[in-house]
C-alpha cells in the first residue's frame, strides 16, 4: 500500500474520490520568484513595464488567472473545480527580484492549491516570455505553496 493519494491499491494512477468529503471554504496562496538581469530590472524599476510584446505585469496577471482556471485540464489527476476567486499580485522586491503571489479560493470538496501554484507558475513564465527580448538571462527561482486553508489540514509556510 502507498501513502500517495493518486495511486490505487494496485499502484496505478487514480483520481482521488472526493465523493464522501464535505464542502468547505478552501483558500491557497502560492509564490513564485523571478530573477532578472540588472538592465531589465532597471527598466522595470523606472516604470517601463512595456516591452515589444506589451505590458509585462498586466499580461502576467491575466495569464496567471487564465491558467489557474484551466488547472484541471493541465494536470491529469487534478479535479476540475469551479474556482470562485483568483488574484495575482506582482511586485519588485528589495532583493531585486519579482515576487508573484497567486491566491485562489473556492467552496468545494477538494483543495485549490494546484490552481494557486499553476497561476503563479504561468505568471512567472509569462514574465520570462515578455522580457526575453531584453535578455534570456532570466531565472524562475522558486514556486511554492505558502499557505492553504480548508479541508483536512491547514498549512502555512514561514516566508
UniProtKB/TrEMBL annotation:
It catalyses: (8S)-3',8-cyclo-7,8-dihydroguanosine 5'-triphosphate = cyclic pyranopterin phosphate + diphosphate. One of its GO terms (molecular function) is GTP 3',8'-cyclase activity. The keyword Lyase applies. Residues 16-151 form the Molybdopterin cofactor biosynthesis C (MoaC) domain. InterPro entries: MoaC, MoaC_bact/euk, MoaC_sf, MoCo_biosynth_MoaA/MoaC, Mopterin_CF_biosynth-C_dom. The keyword Hydrolase does not apply. SUPFAM superfamilies: Molybdenum cofactor biosynthesis protein C, MoaC. Its EC number is 4.6.1.17. Keywords: Lyase, Molybdenum cofactor biosynthesis. Gene3D superfamilies: Molybdopterin cofactor biosynthesis C (MoaC) domain (3.30.70.640). NCBIfam families: moaC (TIGR00581), PRK09364.1 (NF006870). This is cyclic pyranopterin monophosphate synthase.
Amino acid at each position: 500500500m502507498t501513502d500517495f493519494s493518486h495511486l490505487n491499491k494496485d499502484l496505478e494512477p487514480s483520481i482521488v474520490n472526493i465523493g464522501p468529503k464535505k464542502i468547505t471554504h478552501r483558500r491557497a496562496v502560492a509564490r513564485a520568484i523571478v530573477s532578472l538581469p540588472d538592465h531589465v530590472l532597471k527598466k522595470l524599476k523606472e516604470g517601463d513595464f512595456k516591452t515589444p510584446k506589451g505590458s509585462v505585469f498586466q499580461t502576467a496577471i491575466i495569464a496567471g488567472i487564465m491558467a489557474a482556471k484551466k488547472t484541471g485540464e493541465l494536470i491529469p489527476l487534478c479535479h476540475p473545480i469551479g474556482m470562485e476567486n483568483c488574484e495575482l499580485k506582482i511586485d519588485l522586491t528589495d532583493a531585486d527580484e519579482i515576487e508573484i503571489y497567486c491566491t485562489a479560493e473556492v467552496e468545494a470538496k477538494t483543495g485549490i492549491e494546484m490552481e494557486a501554484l499553476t497561476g503563479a507558475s504561468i505568471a512567472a513564465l509569462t514574465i520570462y516570455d515578455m522580457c526575453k527580448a531584453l535578455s534570456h538571462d532570466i531565472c524562475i527561482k522558486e514556486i511554492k505553496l505558502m499557505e492553504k486553508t480548508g479541508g483536512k489540514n491547514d498549512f502555512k509556510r514561514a516566508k
